[in-house]
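Case study B.
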Amino acid sequence: MSLPLIVLLPLLGSLIPLLSSNRQRNLNAGSTAILPAVALAIALYHAPRVLAGEVPRFSLSWVPQLGLDLAFRLDGLSLLFVMLILGIGLLIILYSRYYLAPEDSMPRFYAYLMLFMTSMLGIVMADNLLLLWVFWELTSLSSFLLIGYWYKQSEARRGARMALTVTGMGGLAMLAGFLLIGHIVGTFDMQTVLDSRQLIQADPRYLPALLLILLGAFTKSAQFPFHFWLPHAMSAPTPVSAFLHSATMVKAGVFLLARLHPALAGSQLWLYIVTLTGLVTMIYAAYFALLKYDLKGVLAFSTVSHLGMITMLFGLDSKLAVIAGLFHIINHATFKASLFMSSGIIDHETGTRDIRKLSGLRHSMPMTAALAGLAAASMAGVPLLNGFLSKEMMLTEALGSGILGGLAWLIPVLATLGSVLSVAYSLRYVRNVFFGPAATDLPKTPHEAPFMMRLPMLLLVALCVLIGLLPALMVTGILEAAGQATILAPRPELHLAIWHGFNLPLLMSAIALAGGVAIYSVRRTLFSFQRQFPQRNALMLFEYAVRQLLGATQRGIDRLENGSLQRYMLWLIVVVLFLTGSGLLDLTQLKGELPLKPLDGLLVVGAAITILAGLGTAVLHRRRLVSLMMLSVVGLMVSLAFARFSAPDLALTQLAVEVVTVILLMLALFFLPQRTPKESSGGRIVRDVLLAASFGGIVASLNYALLTRSLDSISGYFLANSVSGGGGHNVVNVILVDFRGFDTLGEITVLCIAAIGIYKLLNRLRLFMPSSDSEGRPWSKDLHPMLLATVSQSLLPLALLVSVFIFLRGHNEPGGGFIAGLVTAVALILLYIARGVDWAQQRLTFQYQPIAVVGVVIAALTGLGSWLFGHNFLTSAFGHFAIPYIGEVELATAMLFDLGVYLTVVGATLMILANLGKLTTRHRPSKENEKETV
Amino acid sequence: MEALFATVTGFLAASGLYLALRGRTFPVVVGLTLLSYAVNLFLFSTGGLTTDGAAVIQDGKTHYADPLPQALVLTAIVIGFAMTAFSVILAMRVRGDQGSDQVNDQRGDDAREEKS
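Model:
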């Protein structure tokens, strides 16, 4: 199917302009135009079928889990917009070629423009709500790039940011609305959604969904009170304004109203919100359009006003109103694009867009004056031009609106008032700029623009006239098809004609024309009236609001994230207390069903020592060495507890780790203050004691509750399969190296990474080394006592032998790689302590980093090895081997894995401790020393 | 026995948390170590408190301690050591680079309030 090509070719086309340089302007513009032209041809190829009422569709599953499909459709509504986007887009490409100054980057401009074109095409052709939203946000992003094209100007940057913020937020609201609709209907498929009107409107979620979607549409189409971004988007290059604010960007909002009309419209809610928003916007913006001095400012507010009119038409509960809205979309696109182009030409040729300076340009640029005059007449609704036709339809529908009950007359009166203002500002645009005496103080001497720059305008104005003269021939087909897609009713029969006889709408049109001229003639009174109000710039207000928001959030963040670790801990603990505490409250009683086990004296004594040592660590914490000694007592008692409760592996590990930890902390303490100064206030101590006590209470209660309840455990499997499946009798070790080997691999990797991190932290670390202890006593001169040195040296081979023994028996008896590695590390560290770093360094010349890394690699390779035999990662094999002189030995690949664990533990522990020890000597770890040793 | 064990765990956790809430690095590291002892004991006890039941398979023996928490705690002990080492050496590095062993960011106004 060629449907997706209509969207994807322009996307591809966004790369084409980047291929040629900025100097080849014709080539650049020409090559850029090719792909959208092809896309337009494809659309036209499908057009006869679409006009006949068919709806070609294309669908490709994209993210089915989210309900997001790459689905496109080309119904009448889509076709209408595709032709506007591509047709006017091609004219804009031509116009920009002459508009852009030589120093502006043309490739960048065209690339942004094509990206924007793609996203607009995506919106109008999307056959899936989520896909529509994706393209919708893409228009916000690409319009940000286009509006901020002259990124060196502060105005452009700020205007772009404002447009992005407003339309982007609207887009997010719209997504929420779409998700609600998706939940109601059960799918995001466009056709299903459109067919589910009754289901949607009966659902209570209809109200929030409608409000959110309307928020998206109103922000995009700059409806009051979200209109303020549009005038500031005028800091964009004029071709961008001509494209975005005539046929595309702002039309996306009204497109959405038309697209979802079958599903959402028809309720009182829709009728009132949409109609009244449109009406208010129409009059409000028309009044301000009359007051602006900037040509583009006039056009911007008139755009807002006309969008308000279209919105109002989509709100009214009448099929012909919808048709009128669609018709006005076409007409507005043609006359507004040509008017923007005229303002660009004037700016280009005179150097200013200020209405107060411009005058009498018809003498110097007669062609532009004629074209702009015709376009402005169409905007004002002068008969024989297309603007007149849709405005007549609008007035007719406003007459028959049937809302507001007894005040129903208000709608046509206000609609006429809007038309009056529209006539007035159109007249001002033409008369002040092109008529009167020729201006003399312009920045440039005005002359006619090149023909090719006027050509797009000429074509558009010709279209205005042709539609105005021959509406039935020109637009009936496409309007009928688009109307069919929008109101889903039997295809509407249209009879567009210029002359409907003398009737009320014609009278209203006449009033509008006469009133407009009248208002124009008294405009100076209006200007001086307006001067009494303070100038309020929406941009300044917006930026003020943004600054306020940022300030408020920053203050909020500062309160939570104030750089105080104590504060963070506090929050963490409070949350933990709340969550676990509330869990405990749900228990009927703390004690579970299991019988309690008896106490014995030894246990009580052990528990008492542990508690006292634990409390001592905390209470005496300001005397750091004492606190550390207390901590080591706790560690030893924990190790004994493991031994007492049938965990020999844990006891051994804890014992070895305890030694290493205490040595580490003592070394660290050497470089840190020996005492903690008294800082905490009494209140702080009370708070922390209370917090700690409640934490301890909850932990103890939880532990007790857990201990007295029986749990279903998966451990039975491990006990049953350890010998048969893992080839080892020590179940703890088999779990570590076999059943849960993958966890262990992760853990030794973490260990290795921590050690490497520590190694880097110690690099080039310079610390003050005290020459005496905290009480001023100098360190002992006997740094390496003879006795310790001799004992440790003779112990080393023995300790190594023990670690090998522990390692080998680990699979069947308590032991294994972790414990053996710690024992080896302790033995080596003892040597460092007894003989000093210098002495040890001369004899142990190898680096520890590679050992740890090799350990991890061995463990990983063991795991990978089982792939060679077609088994899963880390599947172990074992067998019994008869080795001469030693006898029968059971060997398992798990042992190889355990070797990796062993090496990692040795390497990591020594990497930490030996490098820390080196800080005390001239062998400080640093880059230079690294080079020496390598 | 269960109540006694739980009491010990609770006291260790409370002491550890109190230290972890101090304002200087060394007591915080000691507190975290103490807290990790409490956590290890807690985790270990989820398998129940078994006497004379080391999980080493022997013929004819049916009474075994739960080996799974033991395996988890064994690695936790080693990782706990790595964490203690990392945090204490981070503390040394901070003292070396900034000359202070306070845990709070000294730049913020609030942090100064916390100190008092």
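The two ends of chain B are 43 Å apart (CA to CA). The remaining cases will be described in the next quarterly update.
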